[in-house]
Amino acid sequence: MLDSQRTWEMFRYFVRRVLQGVLTFFGATFIVYALMFANQTDPLQTLAGERPLPENVRQALTERYHLDDPFIVQYGHYMRGLLTGDFGISLTNRSIKEMMEQAWPVTVRLALLAIVIAVLISVTSGIISGIRRGGPFDTVTLIITLILLALPIVVLAPLAQLFFGVQLKWFPATAGADPGVYQLLLPAAVLATLVMATEIRVTRASVAENLRSDYVRTARAKGLSKRRVIGVHVLRNSLIPVITLIGLDLGNLMAGAIVTEGVFNIPGVGFNLFRGIRTEDGPLVVGFVSILVIVFIVVNLVVDLLYAVLDPRIRYE
Amino acid sequence: MRGHFPLKMAVGATAIMLLAAGCSGGGDDAGDEAFVVSIGIGEPQHLIPSNTTESNGAEVLAALYTPLVDFDANNNPVLVAAESIESPDNKVWTIKLKDGYTFHNGEKVTADNYINAWNHAAYGPNGMGGSYFFARIQGYDELNPKDPDGEDGPQKPPTPPTNKLSGLAKVDDLTFTVTLKEPFSGWRSVMGYTVFYPLPNAAWASDGVLKEDFEQAPIGNGPFKIKGKWEHDSKIEVEKYDAYPGEKPKIDGVLYKIYQDQQAQYADLSSGALDIVTQIPIENLASAPTDLGDRFKTSPNSVFQFVGFPTFLEQYSKVEVRKAISMAINRKEITDSIFRGSQTPATSFVSPAVAGYRENSCGEACTYDPAKAKAMYEAAGGPKQIKITYNVDGGHKAWVDATCNQLKTNLGVDCVGVGEPKFADLLTKVEKKEDVGLIRMGWLMDYPLMENYLGPLYGTGGSSNYYGYSNPEFDNLVKQGSAAKTPEEAIKIWQQAEDILARDMPVIPLRHGQNVFGHSERVKNVEVDKYTKVELLKLEPAS
Predict the structure, then answer these.
(1) How many angstroms separate the CA of residue B134 from the nearest CA in chain A?
(2) pLDDT tens-digit map of A20-52
(3) pLDDT tens digits, B368-380
(4) Nearest Cα to B406, choosing from B377, B435, B380?
(5) What's the CATH number of domain A100-310, 1.10.3720.10, 3.30.750.24, 2.30.30.180, 1.20.1250.20?
(6) Domains and CATH numbers, chain B
(7) A55, B129, B166, B512: which has the fewest Cβ within 10 Å?
């Protein structure tokens, strides 16, 4: 009976979150569209660069892209398209849907690989340094995390490319538009450093705290093996904050790979967002952002539901 | 197990290297290995000739299309796809095409292909970026009616009554005539530009309407044909077109690899994954000569960098003030220390890339002389503060700040560089007549004539004359030059016009551009021309 009550609770929670998600989606896309509109000075001149833009060309393009319509009309145009799955065309006359079909898989691959690398390294070393606090391993990881935190990716990415790609030639210097796992390894590792430091610290703190808690003492007193105490009880409870962090990082990595994608020439989401903002291409930016919003909403939901699996005491209300 | 790790790495790396070599080698195992050269470019905006006014698209189209004329070392036009281009009065031009040229789909190139393409390009509602090149042809105005209540008004411009230029007429299959509004001796050179390429019949969905996806796989009349499709943000591949009747390329194909970032291009060149980088970024210039040795090269291009004085700003209205500022700038110091020799000091109002260029036509006004500059500036009562506005997305901050420092030291004034996010933002401020100070400008020529600098940059109402310089005497000379009987006469008159600029100083010439390029050991005879394009017909395998 308790079980069915719990399932019902979870279902209600799920539905409520999905509805909230829909609201978030519309709110976020509206705000982004409004910001793009406010930022727009003269996208056609921006596209032409420093070249003169002939009057007739300006007229024809303004009409084609509805650039002279008021904000609410433009937004209406855009939303009507979006709800029917039509993302519109970019200012260079490319289908935004096609651009997304090309960019998303690459970025998802890159972000997932980065997360795998980050989690493998940070959870392992976080646990070890949490158990052996103050030991040499703990000190060394602390120093490494400090270095990683201090090195911004604009420095790290070109350095890694120069060292491992150009000089040692262990990896290709750039990954290109359709990279395999091997080509993505170097950029993913660079990207992973972005989140690794925090993940290590959070894992370590969480493990350390749980080791001191009552239930661990009880488990030890009952005579459970150290392996079981740590492997089952401590780990399971320590991972809750880490999983929250990983979930949020996944979204951040997808949106925040602008520098890495630029350095390693990966035409993914970050690159397209940058291009869209630079050319004041509202539909292009909003198209990518709306998918990003969905990613964030889904990941957050999954993370929240995962809590229940890890800790049965957590209630959904 | 640990000992195996580096070995695995090495094996993996070798496999990738082999794979990469296979890719750039064309990957054709049967018979002779095809020799494909990879060139780094940015994503083109368009691949329709009349809509291609930026260098990435022009670079690719140059492989796919053959122009009517090309230019020799002295910037004089030489016939390529044209058998002859004649005009008795510089107004009606008769163009006879060479026989034997075909499009890549087998169609014969005829006069109609040119006429149809040019009509489409000039038709206003098509919104082709290069349409203004056709403005000299009779009938252009009918195809581009004015918006009755201006650009911002609610009314739409009327639909043109026709979609054909009245100045274009077919004589026979291989001959057509172009009638200009006014005589222009340089018209032969103008037709060498990208927007004047012909289009095959297969390009049209209906009369005057281009097929939607034509630019995804353009069909041209050039030495190379497209292989597959334009893979956006990734690559464009072209291969030798066997039925090409002109000068044959010595390579089998070109792989244009698309990069977002020039530094990534350079990284690929250094690691051997790319053959040619046409513009090595400033960040890599310190190490490039050592990295590449004799594969690091420079050649002049037509880029001209300068700052303009908006005429609506009272404080710069005295010519002595403008001259003094110019004389207080040490151009050489900036090209050496900031551009590391990748640009050269400019002391003329046109680029060395055009016939008629004279070194130091600007004279004393462009000669560095801080003492004289200061005396002149103070005597003329120049403003206490000088502002230079530039766009921050073009890497201009370093030299603007350096220029400001020179002005501070040499003129004893306050000087600030003001960054605007984009060039368009700068233009908006100029249009509103805000106090922007000096404005940063750059110009890349479309066709190699002095007129291509004089007209758009300094003519009254010139397309890039954002600072509003206007001198009827100057306009008159430019016009007279354009109407001159021969190109030589034209140059003489245009040079007189340039002398007026040296007197009026509407702008300060600063630097001429250079191609700073590098290539791999696989290729030789790599040359980059004044339009920043790789000369494909000269490229050769290194061994």
Answers:
(1) 12
(2) 889 998 998 899 888 888 877 788 887 777 777
(3) 999 999 999 999 9
(4) B377
(5) 1.10.3720.10
(6) 67-209 (3.90.76.10), 305-510 (3.10.105.10)
(7) B166
